[in-house]
Write a structure and sequence with these properties.
This protein is mainly α and about 350 residues long. About 55% of the residues lie in helices and about 0% in strands. The chain contains 18 helices and two strands. A two-stranded antiparallel sheet has the order 1-2. The chain is globular, with a radius of gyration of 19 Å.
Length: about 350
């Protein structure tokens, strides 16, 4: 019997990576988040309620090859060309080989589309590792293609400055809040990230943290730090969606890291940290909370409450927070999930992406 995620991909065949109004198509990530929250029965109805708003995949324009791929990075007009390229790559080699080959190349640009290329890729990898099929290969190709087509490099080069020895919670105190030095009007997350270009205090952020002996420990440190950032800054509704991204996007690396060569792992982790630090630089106004109380709801209740909001980001965030809690049982994850549910209840405004 096809999985709920596979059913979702069947419905979404021929659909592009963005809505007709230009917002990111989060539906594949939401479908897997619902599965992770043990509500597979909600996947198909959730998609069917939104399918009419999604845009079709545009036609191919020009071939992306191993000779000209660099010139096509960050060109959303080439989205179909990129998807076709990765479909060819996946026909010529195993998906594990393709990931080892291409993720270190794509890592510097994971901030594009507010990190949704990485997020969607992570969910695709989680599923293809469970069950391989042509449908899942196509989804992985579409995810990697979107990452490449929205490629956005943030300021900073790995190793260009002395590598730091800080944990993420400590490194946050070294990040300058952009609004204090260069006020600007930010209309959405992607504009904010692009606006870091030329903001010199940010260039060293990518090198602030140390990579521990067990690399996934750094991932837990990043997501816990950003859960605490979320809790301190979520008083402002305009900060809720950005700081959700600051946790769920690096969190998606948990599904990616096992398939990367050892020398490539620090690259993915540093750029994942840089992305979280970027959102803190852009949207930060309050230091992370140091302590927080565990909410009265258990994990199952939080999952049900997130789903009841019918909000894509509440669902994805709850799924990611509960996953991270399973690896690093700190109350901050549950408290952050509960606060997001409160903020993203149906009376709250929609995403600004």
């Amino acid at each position: 019997m096809p999985s709920a995620y596979t059913k979702a991909l069947t419905i979404l065949a021929g659909i592009g990576p963005e809505y007709k109004d230009g917002r990111v198509n989060t539906v594949p990530a939401v479908a897997d988040a619902l599965v992770l929250l043990n509500r597979s029965d909600r996947v198909v109805p959730w998609i069917e309620a939104r399918i009419e708003s999604l845009d079709a995949m545009p036609p191919d324009t020009k071939l992306v090859t191993r000779d000209n791929w660099a010139s096509a990075l960050g060109d959303i007009a080439r989205i179909s060309d990129w998807r076709a390229f990765f479909k060819r790559e996946l026909r010529q080699a195993s998906w594990q080989v393709v990931l080892r080959d291409w993720l270190p190349r794509l890592a510097p640009g994971l901030a594009g589309a507010a990190g949704h290329g990485l997020l969607r890729t992570g969910h695709a990898i989680r599923n293809i590792a469970l069950e391989e099929s042509n449908l899942l290969y196509d989804e992985l190709a579409a995810s990697l293609g979107y990452w490449a087509a929205r490629f956005l490099k943030l300021p900073g080069i790995i190793g260009s400055e002395s590598t730091g020895s800080l944990r993420p919670a400590e490194a946050l105190s070294r990040i300058k809040w952009q609004y204090k030095e260069r006020p600007s009007r930010i209309t959405n997350i992607s504009d904010g990230l692009e606006g870091l270009t030329g903001f010199s205090p940010f260039s060293g952020v990518v090198n602030l943290v140390t990579i521990p002996a067990e690399p996934l420990e750094l991932l837990s440190q990043i997501t816990e730090a950003m859960a605490r950032v979320f809790l301190s800054n979520s008083y402002d509704s305009a900060k809720v969606i950005p700081f959700i991204h600051s946790l769920v996007v690096p969190g998606a690396l948990r599904y990616v890291i096992p398939y990367i060569e050892p020398e490539g792992i620090p690259i993915l982790l540093r750029y994942g940290w840089q992305f979280a630090g970027a959102l803190y630089a852009i949207y930060g106004r309050v230091n992370p909370v140091e302590t927080c109380e565990r909410p009265s709801e258990d994990k199952a209740q939080l999952a049900d409450q997130a789903i009841a909001t019918d909000n894509e980001f509440a669902i994805i965030f709850a799924s990611s927070c509960l996953c991270e809690y399973n690896h690093n049982p700190r109350a901050a994850y549950l408290a952050a999930a509960r606060e997001a549910i409160k903020q993203l209840a149906p009376t709250t405004s929609e995403s600004n992406i």
